[in-house]
């Protein structure tokens, strides 16, 4: 297909552009400058409904045709967003049922964005209509290569009458009878038993004390509604725009919606990437960003796009951030590519002069005089375009993966276990320890196949079922190393505790059970290894009773001093670690280092703080990305001397990186 | 009466159990284990309305009969809760006026618990009906010894139409005319005068700037409504279940409702006791707990029950607490008994696997495998059962009392006087100072007779009337020592300031007046005694002018340096202290120590931090409870060597207590 | 006119008094004591609607006549407040459209005060009626010299249907067509284009993400409505009470409404002054207070009244403040006079015994026994009365002014630029630096003429138009020194960014442009002068490119080290500073000191911390006020020895001031 040809045509740079925000006389000079700068992609249209359909059924596509023609003239491809994130005022006036309703009964008023309930019939009717007209009209335009559905989906927790009805039907489809609902939700507690279907609805009032099984299903209903909403648009576009790809721009992880379900129908995933510009975030921000990129790559388990990349200080309804330091824009664009982005679209060409996002700065400031940031961006475009074809078709291949699960995220949000424990923050800790060791890892849905991997890190698989427990057992049996943690196997899939010793269905492969636990929260405890070395741990202490497993660490204090805190169990050809507590980074790094050595997983030990490495591998060559993501210069010692794609000659075993310095080395 | 026999039958242990939460096949094995463990009481039923009356007028009592029969078979007595805390969904569907309405007009939706306005006619109709059926049906069951009304009453500040009407009628009954209302509430301020009864209603909008006289009466209306709501149920139960006692489980002091009015119709009070398990709370938690127990004993001025006692880490919609340290469960159960509990019911037998309270841990974890906590509990049951008959009929007899007043609590909540001043926290300070000296004290309603006491501590009697002022004067005249503090006598009973020098009606007995005051809040000032020793003080500085009283302490700084801060007045046979500021604990302890010596009040000076002592006295013997309520071992020096009920032989003058160690000594 | 004679009759003292709060038998003894104390003015009536019109159309003026007669008997003048701040209950009952509606749709319920939408037709009908009756009846009373309109106007952000309609009409009047609205608000962003007038209304829901142009116009609409509301009352009073002045009591700056528009129709402005009594606020409170007084003087650019001055600890729905230290009441009354107050009315005669303001203490405590505070006040009255005629007609004449703009205040509130930057707090910083140098300055509306001044400090003129830019240019051209700062010239008047290099329309006179900026927020950076001295700076760093201007300071770090941070441009006869960052006080003081020297602006260098000086100048004499506004004694070195109005003889060059000590010196 056409779109595949385009999509496969190498790594490229783009910008977000809003022709409707600017006098049309500015368009061509903007596009000329884009062309000169080396921009090859533009995204537009995702908020333009009021311009495309200024009143019901009246379409004005000329202006966009004119803009598309200009982009085509300069050979810049265009991704069109469907504009359903911002229903125009005539529509919310005509069909107020489009507006979401909050738990307190108040309405999400128009005037901002995202003021649409995904489940609203009216939204689906009018949204489908504008999408269909756009797909018909623009679907064959030679400039248009693809589509973005809506913009930055998010959980709304809508309580509108439509959601009330929709959720009720969803529950009935899932459970069939009220008897089953009452049993699976455990509504007998506090006399919450439903005696009539009409009693089921969204959690009006928003109390966090609601039944957790019910709240989890309410989240699942919403996940399904977003998927359904997207599906309708995808069907329409596929029908009218056959050669074009479809994506969606995810943002700000963790998102409460199920990105894996949403990802299923997309050609590839996209991400809006705003790495934190504050010097205070140097120590954690780039690692958190690395995780975001790995999460995005994991959605489709393939390369992805950045649909919005930071270009200047963000700021709007909140105070502005620091301006990106010299080199920041380049380094973080390369970070995205290094972790699987094939296209990086910067947000935005020029800062808006009107509206709420005036200070979400673009590459060019309001004055329209290109400055330092633009110059850095232009140099970056040149660099990327030079390497574009070399990097074409390369991708990341890892032996390690972290399992991520929206089921856990949501159920642990509903019932926070202990002060200081956060499912996603803990994943960040595991991921950062791996990243600091230069161990590449994927972050994948817990439902995915584990076949490719040698090492699986599976933090807090709090909900569990026999199928996944079986998959994890098979993974270990066949030689994999599996790392489990506290708060695993606690519940069945409908969010009720299991009447089994923890980690429940995983106790067999862990070879250990939890006798008791102490939710220590912010208190700092110690774990001790067999040589007497101590490490700090936090959040939770499972008091373990090995049942075949070996003891790796013991507690160093409290009434369970000397009792196992971490065990490892030989299971089939593999082994299963159980971490009964949340140890400090130094210990995690020593564990991962040991495991990686044993499993012969590639790593780059000794990386200085702030430096990240990844490898993109193609049919016959691999490229090592070495990124210094901090404001200080760094030296990296490499395993051997590789030629640099950016600087030509090999730079030896010792690589000197300037602040935010980048190098890309050809490994073979 | 039968119930009296049961109630007097010695100290005993129980658990909270929810047969409706578990497969009925589990029941008998649970009850067998209870029996083996030494459990003699079970509470149940207080949330079971939807199972007892699954639809309007359809009663299903068989399951509970079956459970009661089983308990009877194993000779375990049962306390039944009336289930009105959780109206079932069919009822809130049928009669939505049951649901409380918040100040902002939003409804307290069903789905959690406590979703019932005490004043709702529908609640009273349907609630009375189920209570009557239960009383008829279960009132003669041989296992049932008593009833708990509803569960954990609390102030709801309901703004429903029923409360609007009810409050209006209450105001009319109290004042008769609008003229009187306007005068007594002082509504002329800000033109708030009522010209029509219909203008009176709950404080819609919830502004804290409302008229304080009005807000206090709105609280009093609610107090009366809870009492009325309870009274209806009590009448029904007394009619059908003559031999059975009636109680209510209070919780989480201070409660804004008037526990003394609620207590009036009960046979005894009960309390839900969750001592804080965090090591950070060691220094204050057990003292705060001691106060809670003394408050509970003061409700009826007699021994009481613990209806829910901590069994494991609580946690639900909030993060879990620490697990109870070894010995914690035992020590705090003994603390409850030491302060007047005759029965201690642990919450709960087994942790719930479903619903919002899954992580409010019971004695047995979800796995249903009894562990450390259960073992400690079982040993405790054995211990209690051994001593049960010895302790029968013993009670606490004290020479000192602290006056507690819901009038002050509420009016000082409505108008916080100064940063850092909290009525109940101040009571904690006075109570802790007494407790650390081993001075037993009662905490009683300020309306009670003071005849039994030598020492009365009366913090901030902010509202005052002539009757109580007269009672306090008589107490002092007849030889008592009365301790008054700043913010006394400020207002009349309708929450208007008096046009008198402070402490208003108490100025005569204080022998001093307040010339001016400085609300110092968090600033730390100094007071100095006649020997030049200085102590810190906080919150408030009354600048005193003695009028017959002697000067005890003077201020050490600010423009009132040298001016009296604390005075003592010889009044009749007794003396009246006036504390114009809130001194640090060291000073309070020196004051109480001096007063106790003078009045020959028993004390145990020199107790180490964390150790509490109390005495339960019977017809011919007294038992000294010595409790180490911390994680470290402690040594206590006793006035003489007593034999130990727990360890037999006398352990000498020096008692060594392990962490959370307990001893009970026979004094004569 | 009569009122002018009264108004010009010298500096005087007053109290706020509420006859309706007290038994009428107390009135005459209160007034006698006022007379003895030296009180010459009383304000009353502003909350008395329910007493003046107890039911619709029924007027009871006798009681107020009686009170006025008594005041007249003792020759005390009376200012009457119109009572529209507190519509009585019969009126809100009859016409509930009077009640404001919040963004969330909830109603501002009666029961407190200020429960009235300025735009409500009903308020205007019933409010005008009571004001007309009062003006007719009391307008000729010999005791009444003037009127206060309503009480402490404030922005309500009302969302009632009346405001919805009113705002819509306002927008239509301003813009004429929806096309113009959409263009000027930039609604195309996020498809927010209006297609029908009925879509325009207040920002329901209250999201801060709304369009900033729209939000600014919504604020302007409210400004106009308050002015209109006031205008109606002023017209009525002017008609019936010709010889009497009209004022309004502003409070708590910054107020979001446009005080300059409100001030236009007043005879003079008044202010409610509550200097903070906490010792922790000694270092900043008196400077913040000085600014409040200068702001008040700037409203009409003439002397003013204090209508409420602190008399004791405030406290009501919030915890009480510290009591005023000895000398505090006197010192801050003199501070008000020193900065242009001609009358100081203390709030209040006696503390209220009823209602929500019971603990907003007056001069006399609830006991009605005058104490220390009253004695200090009485001595102050005597002192003021002694000097009253000498000070008559004197005023403050300054060479420096700070420009204040409600447009900037509101637009910077809508879009906070960076953490730690607050428009009014920054003005405080500039004002405090001037005050510490003893440089008197005015604070005036940015629309005012600048003719009188040599130095204009113009912080963050974020919105700008050609007219004001031209005025500033002329000011500099003609020899003035203009100080501009970062975030100037960013936007046009409808709150859209300009497509020009910053500072936009001010770039020409600044002689420099902003190449880029770094919103550093709370990070502390350095600026360095040509001698290498360094100073701290915060909030924002404009990276400047001089375009004719000289470099004053350069950045000391980050990637813009060495780049200009502050420039000065010779412009015509004058010069224009541009401060690209917010420097610390020491630097501001050195700048102002240098500029003042150059421009020969009077200053008093070397003032100790806590001491403030100002000069009031009359036809032939000037009076130097020297105020020690702290709890420690201070020594001030004066330029020459002046005779003291308070202590007679000259006290030499070195003036010793006790804590809160005051002196007033005759300069020539």
Automatic annotation (TrEMBL), chains A, B, C:
Pfam families: Glyco_hydro_42, Glyco_hydro_42C, Glyco_hydro_42M. It catalyses: Hydrolysis of terminal non-reducing beta-D-galactose residues in beta-D-galactosides. Keywords: Glycosidase, Hydrolase, Metal-binding, Zinc. InterPro entries: Beta_galactosidase_C, Beta_galactosidase_Trimer, Class_I_gatase-like, GH, Glyco_hydro_42, Glyco_hydro_42_N, Glyco_hydro_b. Residues 399-601 form the Beta-galactosidase trimerisation domain. The keyword Zinc applies. Residues 16-386 form the Glycoside hydrolase family 42 N-terminal domain. Its EC number is 3.2.1.23. The keyword Zinc applies. It comes from the Bacteria. Residues 610-667 form the Beta-galactosidase C-terminal domain. Belongs to the glycosyl hydrolase 42 family. This is Beta-galactosidase. It comes from Paenibacillus vini.
């Amino acid at each position: 297909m056409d779109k595949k040809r385009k999509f496969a045509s190498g790594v490229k740079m783009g910008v977000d552009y809003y022709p409707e925000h600017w006098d049309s006389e500015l368009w061509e000079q903007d596009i000329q400058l884009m062309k000169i700068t080396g921009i090859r992609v533009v995204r537009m249209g995702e908020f333009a409904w009021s311009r495309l359909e200024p009143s019901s059924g009246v379409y004005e596509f000329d202006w966009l045709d004119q803009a598309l023609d200009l982009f085509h003239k300069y050979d810049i491809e265009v991704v069109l967003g469907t504009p359903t994130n911002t229903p125009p005022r005539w529509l919310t006036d005509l069909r107020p049922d489009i507006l979401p309703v909050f738990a307190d009964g108040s309405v999400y008023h128009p005037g901002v964005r995202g003021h649409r309930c995904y489940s609203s019939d009216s939204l689906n009717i009018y949204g489908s209509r504008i999408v269909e007209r756009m797909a018909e009209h623009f679907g064959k335009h030679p400039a248009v290569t693809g589509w973005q559905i809506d913009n930055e989906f998010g959980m709304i927790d809508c309580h509108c009458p439509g959601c009330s009805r929709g959720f009720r039907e969803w529950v009935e489809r899932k459970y069939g009878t009220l008897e089953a609902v009452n049993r699976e939700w455990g509504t007998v507690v506090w006399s919450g038993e439903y005696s009539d279907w009409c009693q089921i609805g969204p959690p009006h009032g928003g109390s966090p004390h609601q039944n957790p099984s019910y709240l989890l299903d309410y989240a699942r209903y919403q996940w399904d509604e977003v998927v359904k909403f997207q599906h309708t648009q995808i069907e329409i576009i596929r029908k009218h725009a056959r050669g074009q790809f479809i994506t969606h721009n995810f943002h700000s992880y963790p998102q409460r919606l199920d990105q894996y379900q949403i990802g299923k129908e997309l050609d590839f995933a996209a991400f809006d990437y705003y790495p934190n510009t504050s010097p205070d975030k140097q120590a954690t921000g780039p690692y958190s960003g690395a995780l975001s990129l790995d999460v995005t790559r994991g959605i489709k388990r393939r390369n992805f796009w950045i649909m919005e990349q930071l270009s200047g200080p963000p700021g709007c309804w909140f105070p502005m951030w620091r301006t990106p330091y010299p080199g920041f824009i380049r380094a973080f664009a390369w970070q995205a590519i290094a972790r699987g982005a094939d296209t990086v679209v910067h947000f935005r060409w020029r800062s808006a002069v009107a509206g709420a996002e005036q200070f979400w700065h673009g590459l060019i400031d309001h004055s329209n005089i290109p400055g330092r940031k633009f110059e850095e961006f232009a140099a970056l475009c040149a660099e990327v375009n030079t390497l574009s074809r070399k990097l074409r078709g390369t991708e990341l291949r890892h032996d390690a993966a972290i399992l991520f699960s929206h089921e856990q995220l949501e159920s642990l949000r509903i019932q926070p276990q202990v002060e200081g424990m956060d499912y996603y923050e803990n994943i960040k800790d595991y991921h950062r320890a791996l990243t600091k060791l230069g161990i590449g890892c994927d972050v994948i849905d817990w439902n995915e196949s584990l076949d490719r991997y040698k090492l699986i890190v599976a933090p807090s698989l709090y909900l569990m079922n026999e199928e996944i427990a079986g998959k994890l057992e098979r993974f270990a049996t066949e030689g994999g190393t599996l790392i489990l943690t506290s708060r695993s196997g606690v519940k069945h899939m409908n969010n009720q505790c299991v009447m089994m010793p923890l980690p429940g269905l995983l106790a067999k492969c862990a070879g250990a059970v939890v006798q008791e636990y102490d939710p220590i929260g912010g208190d700092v405890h110690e774990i001790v290894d067999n040589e007497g070395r101590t490490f700090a741990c936090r959040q939770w202490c499972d008091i373990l009773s090995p049942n075949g497993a070996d003891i790796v660490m013991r507690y160093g204090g409290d009434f369970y001093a000397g009792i196992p805190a971490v065990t490892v169990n030989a299971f089939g050809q593999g082994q299963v670690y159980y971490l009964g507590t949340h140890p400090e980074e130094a210990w995690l790094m020593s564990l991962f280092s040991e495991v990686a050595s044993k499993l012969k997983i590639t790593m780059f030990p000794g990386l200085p703080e702030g430096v990240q490495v990844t490898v993109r591998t193609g049919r016959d060559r691999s490229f090592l990305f070495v990124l210094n993501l901090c404001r200080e210069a760094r030296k990296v010692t490499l395993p051997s001397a590789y030629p640099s794609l950016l600087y030509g000659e090999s730079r030896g075993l010792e690589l000197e990186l300037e602040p935010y310095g980048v190098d890309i080395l050809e490994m073979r």
